[in-house]
Specification:
Helix content: 55-70%
CATH topology of the largest domain: MetI-like fold
CATH architecture of the largest domain: Orthogonal Bundle
Strand content: 5-15%
Largest sheet: 6 strands, antiparallel
Oligomer: single chain
Number of strands: 13
Number of helices: 17
Structural class: alpha+beta
Length: 562
Amino acid sequence: MNISVKEWFKSGSPWVWMNAGAVAVSMIMVVGLLGLIAVRGLSHFWPADIVQGNYTQGGEQRVMIGEMVESAEVLTKQLIEAGIDLPETSEYSTRHLMKIGNRDVNGTDFTWALEYYFKDQTRPEMLFAAERHEWGNFYGYLRSVKEAGQEVGRYDDYDKSDAYLALWAELDKRIERVLDIHDDILDIEKGEIGAINYELERLRLKERGLQLDNVTDQRPYDEINQRRKELDQQYEGLQQRLLDLYTQINRDSLTAEVSTGEVVEIQLSKIVRVFRPNDMGVGQKILHYFAKLWEFVSDDPREANTEGGIFPAIFGTVMMVILMSILVTPFGVVAAVYLREYAKQGFITRLIRIAVNNLAGVPSIVYGVFGLGFFVYFLGGNIDDLFFPEAKPSPTFGTPGLMWASLTLALLTVPVVIVATEEGLSRIPRAVREGSLALGATKFETLIKVVLPMASPAMMTGVILAIARAAGEVAPLMLVGVVKLAPSLPLDGNYPFIHLDQKFMHLGFHIYDVGFQSPNVEAARPLVYATALLLVAVIALLNLSAIAIRNHLREKYKALEM
């Protein structure tokens, strides 16, 4: 049976296919973008081979050692016009971005190398890479291991042998010892000494509060001084332990030959790990890869956030979103219930709904400015005057922090929750309400026991949309609490355990900071991709958790809707 084009269009089939095609193209674009981010970010953790070669340009020859980060084709004519001596034998010339490391020796981490000048490229098995707490990566040949300035092993050749492997095993053992000591130092500094400093500060504020209250009884002052003496004694003992540990950690060092032929000595306390990528098998590289990946999600950042991990940013993002969800849900639900169930439906109510819908389109930075002015300066300042006068002039809540960031984002996302909850309330059949009232329930009991449970899936939909928007916001957070680096987490073992006044790190701001404020752009670029992928994963995980709760509620109350 033949169908004319006009009838085909009237049937609506073209529009169905057009919509399906648009959805398919959108999905392909999203998957492609995520794939690009994943490849660019996750490949950074793979232990790349170290290349060595002779680089001869302008009559000067030098040895170049480093990782090939990326390669690019450049017009030969452009290079010649820039003053580079090249034969015009081909239209394009290849150049490599080399990560040469040794910033304390070379002055830079990265350089561009033309393939035409980079000759005799090899991948010696003895070349090693060292990740350091400062100055980035180090590349060179291991020459000796020292203990208290005295050599305990030495090797001066360039070929791998049993003597070299023995020296490397000695180095591995000593680095493992240094890392254990480093962990002990962190435990003391951030744990025990941190707790003592926190309690000393609380004692100082308590004493200041007594003075402001004009307390003349000497007993509370004596108790404070006695406790302070006890803490001072504990602090002195920990300081002595730290001095002993620092003496032990600074005992060992290594010497290594760099590309210039210079021999450099490095304290093992400055090294995070050492490895020989050219001598690693596939299995060893996979283990190294997952170790680096775990470090990325579980460790603190270092080197101006271009090395190490981003755990504080993950923790801060998740904690802020959870607090925001706890704050926005009751406000949004109460507002929606009032507008739908109690407010008289008229001009004023329609005007309020229009205002709520318009609030969803206000730029987020405007909420940030409002949060800074109202929450931080007005509310926070008054809270400090009322409850924390002993801490002044240092602000407690009168400064950006986790609570104000969560409240600002709750205000930003409350229109979404209101609209979604109202939609859910409007879909509940009138007969359900009337049946409950007919059985003797009050309007409030009907609302609490029947209407709200049935509307809970719609509430969760609003929370899901709120999480999706709030977790990726950056602009308002820059004004109300987020920082480049937070020395401690807002959740710890010190009373009151959750410190809502503290500043925190956030994955979105971390991407901005590393991508646009980093002094080492080339080193930061892969971490921008990796952090962006992790931010998407965190948002997806939070949304999936909320979706699972919504689906459970939907199944639970499905019988009531039928």
